[in-house]
Amino acid sequence: MATVRLLTDDELSPEARAVFDDIRAVRQTEFVNNFWRALAHDPVTLKRTWESIKQVMGPGALDAKTKEMLYVAVSIAHGCNYCIHSHTAAARAKGMTEAEFAELIAIVGMASETNRIVTALGVEVDDEFKL
Amino acid sequence: MATVRLLTDDELSPEARAVFDDIRAVRQTEFVNNFWRALAHDPVTLKRTWESIKQVMGPGALDAKTKEMLYVAVSIAHGCNYCIHSHTAAARAKGMTEAEFAELIAIVGMASETNRIVTALGVEVDDEFKL
Amino acid sequence: MATVRLLTDDELSPEARAVFDDIRAVRQTEFVNNFWRALAHDPVTLKRTWESIKQVMGPGALDAKTKEMLYVAVSIAHGCNYCIHSHTAAARAKGMTEAEFAELIAIVGMASETNRIVTALGVEVDDEFKL
Amino acid sequence: MATVRLLTDDELSPEARAVFDDIRAVRQTEFVNNFWRALAHDPVTLKRTWESIKQVMGPGALDAKTKEMLYVAVSIAHGCNYCIHSHTAAARAKGMTEAEFAELIAIVGMASETNRIVTALGVEVDDEFKL
Amino acid sequence: MATVRLLTDDELSPEARAVFDDIRAVRQTEFVNNFWRALAHDPVTLKRTWESIKQVMGPGALDAKTKEMLYVAVSIAHGCNYCIHSHTAAARAKGMTEAEFAELIAIVGMASETNRIVTALGVEVDDEFKL
Amino acid sequence: MATVRLLTDDELSPEARAVFDDIRAVRQTEFVNNFWRALAHDPVTLKRTWESIKQVMGPGALDAKTKEMLYVAVSIAHGCNYCIHSHTAAARAKGMTEAEFAELIAIVGMASETNRIVTALGVEVDDEFKL
Known about the structure:
homohexamer, mainly alpha, AhpD-like, 2 domains, 66% helix
């Protein structure tokens, strides 16, 4: 179920097409996934989001695989099934092993458990953790 | 504000004390943070949680710093202020640089943004992302 | 997948039927959507929920379109796919343009991003924002 | 920090005062907690919310203690610190023991953990669980 | 859609098989639901999760039906459709009536409403609710 | 509690200072709120976030007040106390009346309630709501 139609390449505005061209160039594949096809109705947000993704997920202090794994962890916490699938695929493509994926899931589960227990207990931050 | 009192070392049951002893031994410090002092009212959950944390956060396929950063990411998504502080401190202690922390935060923000946009649009998972 | 069956008009209790009659009268359509058919197993909650919806979403300081758009924004943040679809349909019926829908989605995404960044950084409320 | 001032008894509109009178009569205490004092700026929502609370939390199939414990569990999952404190106090007043509270917390933690693991794995609902 | 395949009994490692044997023995049924089949790729997390579930959901201060209802409430708040279905089935199997389920849903809804209203208003915890 | 220090004007890097200058110019005030002072440790994210905010919250199909109200609604759903305060202040500055704020809160509450009830019931999207 979707609230907007996915756009085919033939239906793109020139602004959206330029973003798709860049996605294909950066990722070195013809494949453009559904997220961008849904977002292409709004070329301004499409362009801003793609430029932001390129900056945030591009080369930096953290390696590409770790970045994708952090993305997956947040997507699980937010219950975004599409995002879990797309970024798990990306993490695997960037070298995440099944053992690492299993550990990621265990950590997300464990954090979720203690996040809620801490909230239930109303634990005050220790002075040792303050700046 | 808390829903239970923090227990001092003198108030611990023998079962809780044994867990505190193990926390101190494993972490090689006398400091036991407030989370465990709040949880110590329930020695069974205290012990199970500590044993689980040791297993999940112990040596494995992912390094200790990456594990703590995943923990922080989930804690941000769940809005657990205490957990953000305690696990950011742990990640820093395990070598997370300020540049890495900044990237972590940017990724959590970016993922949060696209998680909700994807949900709003109702994007279907691409066949390419299916097993 | 559902945890209760949808009730047809023929299966309604008299109390539930009276609510359906009012839904049809207020909305001036024979169509009663699935939410009410699922909720009709519990006529007391059905009636209370419908009366509340009528009050909250009825004429007031905010116009009907803005009210539905706020409803959609919250439903996205909570990940309720059904609610996103039903209230997006309602917002469109009340005049929301596709350009407005695109802006709504961009705002929800932006707010989600900064909500989590603020939480990560632990920013204190400025005195200027206090009452 | 608050976005509205708490109203004292002297500042209430007649409509809000009538709700406060009923809260005091039903609960058999002079004490009216801050939630109602913040909500009293909007007597219509104040009245609707109180009437709904009375209906939902009043006598029914579930006993009063179990109802408050369910309220606490949801409040933990939503990270509402005020609600956790007010409904934990209510649950204790209605007979929740510390052992029961500890089990509630353990269940909320466990459910949070498996909720996220299931979401990560994308587990399909078994036919056995379908209606 | 799933991020891992469900394992059949024939594909289990010896460690995973031992957990499945215990699930079958404790639950006194041959049926092992999909959650465990997805988790079985990681026998260590499988075993830890099952042992934790047994401890948390086993005999204690709260009866089995109430425990499952708390699990359902949290699963609703977290939007885990699988978990809602599996634990609603479990709660029904342990005696939850349809009237009790209807009240559970009404309470979850009511708590969600007031949780967000309290957060919007920024209500401070009353001294009366502090320890 | 914060995980990074707030930067004063004197501590800003030239890149961060340039963003602060633009914030002051666009908003026509010397006041720069804490969010930007916490984010200023990472001038790249600071600049990207400010540019995005300017684009998303700038002139468009929706008026400035409605945009801020949508921002507030999402911030409530995500439990970001800082964001609720800063964007409620912004919405008020852009003309939101107290009656409109009260309706916003009532809608967020109502949506939260039905979001969770729909999720509990597992309601399928009506064909009428599909594209």
